[in-house]
Design a protein that fits this description.
- The complex is a heterodimer of chains A (438) and B (251).
- Chain A has 2 domains: 273 residues, no CATH class; 60 residues, no CATH class.
- Chain A is 21% helix and 37% strand.
- Chain A has 9 helices and 20 strands.
- In chain A, the strands form 2 sheets. In chain A, strands 2-1-5-8-10-12-14-16-18-20 form a 10-stranded mixed sheet, covered by helices on one side. In chain A, strands 3, 4, 6, 7, 9, 11, 13, 15, 17 and 19 form a 10-stranded mixed sheet that branches.
- The longest helix of chain A is centred in the first third of the chain and has 16 residues.
- Chain B has 251 residues and is α/β, with parallel strands linked by helices.
- In chain B, helix 3 packs parallel to helix 6 and helix 6 packs parallel to helix 7.
- The longest helix of chain B has 15 residues.
- Chain B starts with a strand and ends with a helix.
- Classes of the chains: A alpha/beta (438), B alpha/beta (251).
- Chains A and B meet through helix 7 and helix 8 of A and helix 2, strand 7 and helix 3 of B.
Chain lengths: 438, 251
């Protein structure tokens, strides 16, 4: 048994005694823990984890809870916020809510804490209706459920357009020698309601952090969610992001994932289109180097007719970096007139970089339009010659081409300040320094 | 300015250029015509320094310097410009930003500071006007979604901005309607001086109605088989290439 599993089992016993036995989700925690105990961490024998080994992560003796409450000054972490515009903020420091850095609301909607929602009677109906209802039963999600205590609770009522973006930030201070975090988020978006959310996980030191996060999102009829995941963490930080999205009729959900840093990142992004005329957008840009590892495992499950899904994932891999793209599209028999589009383009900058790409289509309906394309290559020689013939040196020309390759995924980012920020991150990451404002 | 002597070049073991001799002096306009596959575009790419072509024999001198020793960007810094037959799309980089980058990279190579923003803006405005290009066009991503004509006009815009000593126009007339052709030709003519030269590579004579060449060369099977003045272009337009083939055979 891995060091971490042993630790989790012993911690769970103590943790359970600590919790309120009448808690709404107490039974769920118990059975989820049993599931985790039984299946353990996934190994490479599991097809879905073939290219993403967790062995090196679960050897570490993480603290499962932070022993004390830590504080941060805003000025020290300002750079991680979208500080040039007004936003709602839900901030956690080592897994514990920071009211000082947060800006929550109960004014016509709830943007607050999971810990509060789990115990207060007024949230009971929502928790009962939605909590743990979108998840797939895999061991990491079960593990998160077993320890579910804190995270973000967002409930946007019908016809409400949230006027500013919500930032969810999980800081790790490094006060623990190594720390495991398991945030649990629930987001319910009512009929015709709109919301924009930005999520990031940020470690502040070189002490190891392992985050196993679960986010459930429900959108009712014509609801609209734009979700942005900014993954630009330190080399000591690893993240397993499990996101489950259930879409009602005519709803529109987009998730952009920007993976620029971290030791190991696994994105399990799952869309379930349950109502007709849904629209799902999954976009990702991965730019990594060194020995970094980023895995995008996506699922778009079309359960209803007349829906669309659009997936575009682009990756640039340098040095010994490893990328994985496993894009699964399932079209049920009832889901006629589907338009499912999937595209995955990768550029290997170094000979030693690796990309494992695997598109998977399971189509049971007969009247559908499904397309997928996957490319793995180097930079286009003709394009390089074009730039060089205009006097742009080879190194800059390559950087410009990589920038152009990644950049067009940003077109669908709807928050201009975020778009600018990501644009700059990409340019810095690639080393485009061409004397113009991006 | 440009002196090509006995130039042989191949791509992937296939001989394309088989002994080209060509001299272009400052202030001159030359046209190279020839049937498909005669090596016209290869010649343009070899002068600009494309890697995949291997020069096996001969020399290319530009203002007394051996070009074959220089990489493409160094050739551009010396004043060689190639207008591409198929320009490349660069999403996310506007026409303006691209041309600024190209100008400042060239200045950097010459040890100069960036062109002051005000001067750059003025130059962009003047040349855009000359080529009848509107401002919206300049803020679009380079060549992305451009029509054939827009791409060509954008090439000429870049040429005008970079003010090269030798401009090579590779099939710049293809994809242009008559109005666009006139605008492009007008632009090229306005930028002419005693200090620069133009090499036009084309299938058709029609661009040569607007840009009058000093010399016309016919390229066949990687060789210049006939040279003459602008009347040669007219004759080719009327009679095609067969009569030259016959002439070459009898030689």
């Amino acid at each position: 048994m891995s060091v971490l599993k042993e630790k989790l089992i012993s911690s769970y016993m103590a943790y359970q005694d600590d919790l309120d036995q009448d808690d709404l989700i107490h039974e769920m925690r118990k059975s989820a823990f049993k599931e985790f105990e039984l299946s353990g961490f996934p190994t490479r024998k599991n097809e879905a984890w073939k290219y993403t080994p967790l062995a090196s992560l679960i050897k570490e003796d993480y603290s499962v809870f932070s022993k004390k409450t830590n504080a941060l000054e805003f000025k020290d972490v300002k750079q991680y916020f979208l500080h040039d515009i007004d936003t709602y903020k839900v901030v956690f420091i080592d897994g514990i809510y920071s009211s000082f850095l947060s800006e929550t609301t109960h004014d016509g909607m709830d943007i607050c804490l999971m810990s509060a929602a789990l115990i207060k009677p007024k949230y009971r109906a929502v928790i009962e209706a939605y909590f743990n209802k979108a998840i797939a039963k895999d061991s990491l999600t079960s593990l998160n459920t077993a320890f579910a205590k804190e995270g973000v609770y967002i409930n946007i009522p019908s016809h409400k357009e949230v006027e500013k973006p919500i930032e969810i930030i999980n800081f790790a201070t490094g006060n623990e020698a190594s720390l495991m975090l398991q945030p649990r988020n629930l987001i319910v978006v009512g009929e015709n309601a709109h919301v924009q959310i930005i999520e990031r996980h940020q470690s502040l030191t070189e002490n190891p952090v392992f985050t196993n996060s679960v986010t459930e999102i429900f959108t009712e009829k014509r609801g609209c969610v734009d979700y942005y995941k900014v993954q630009n963490d330190r080399l000591s930080a690893s993240l397993i992001d499990n996101t489950f999205i259930k879409q009602g009729r005519e709803s529109n959900v987009s998730v952009h994932t920007f993976s620029f840093g971290g030791k190991l990142v696994r994105n399990n992004l799952n869309f379930y289109q349950e109502g007709q005329h849904c629209d799902s957008t999954l976009k990702g840009i991965t730019i990594i180097e060194g020995k970094q590892h980023v895995d995008h495992s996506t699922l778009v499950h079309h359960l209803a007719p007349n829906c669309e899904s659009h997936q575009v994932y682009k990756g640039l891999f340098d040095e010994r970096a490893v990328g994985v793209f496993n894009g699964k599209v399932v079209v049920d028999k009832e889901a006629q007139k589907i338009n499912a589009f999937q595209q995955n383009n990768n550029i290997l900058i170094s000979d030693k970089a690796t990309i494992n790409a695997k598109p998977q289509l399971e189509i049971f309906a007969d009247d559908v339009k499904c397309s997928h394309g996957c490319t793995i290559g180097q930079l286009d020689e003709d394009a390089l010659f074009y730039l060089r013939s205009r006097g742009i040196a080879e190194k800059e020309a390559k950087a410009l081409l990589m920038y152009a390759f990644a950049n067009n995924v940003l077109q669908s980012v709807k928050i201009p300040e975020l778009k600018k920020r990501i644009n700059t991150l990409i340019a810095n990451k690639i080393g485009v320094n061409l004397g113009f404002d991006l | 300015m440009l002196e090509i002597k006995d130039l042989y070049a191949k791509v992937e073991e296939k001989d394309i250029l088989n002994g080209i001799n060509l001299e272009i002096k400052a202030g001159e306009i030359h046209a190279i015509m020839g049937p498909n596959g005669s090596g016209k575009s290869t010649l343009a790419s070899v002068i600009a320094g494309k890697d995949e072509y291997e020069m096996t024999q001969g020399s290319i001198q530009f203002e007394g310097e051996d070009l074959s020793e220089l990489n493409p960007e160094e050739r551009a810094h010396r004043g060689v410009f190639l207008s591409f037959q198929y320009p490349v799309e660069i999403p996310g980089v506007s026409v303006t930003n691209f041309v600024k980058t190209a100008i400042n990279e060239t200045r950097k190579a010459k040890g100069l500071d960036d062109m002051p923003a005000k001067e750059m803006l003025k130059k962009i405005r003047e040349i855009a006007e000359l080529l009848d290009i509107d401002r919206k066009f300049l803020s679009r991503s380079l060549n992305e979604g451009f029509s054939g004509g827009e791409k060509k006009r954008n090439e000429i815009f870049q040429m005008a901005m970079l003010a090269p000593k030798l401009a090579i126009l590779d099939e710049t007339d293809s994809g242009l309607d008559i109005d666009a052709l006139r605008i492009v030709a007008n632009g090229v003519n306005k930028l002419r001086s005693e200090n620069n030269a133009v090499l036009i590579i084309t299938h058709y004579q029609r661009l040569l109605d607007y840009i009058i060449p000093d010399k016309v060369h016919v390229l066949m099977d990687g060789k210049i088989v006939k040279s003459g003045d602008k009347n040669l272009a007219k004759k080719l337009e009327e009679k095609g290439y067969d009569w030259i083939k016959e002439e070459v055979k009898t030689l």
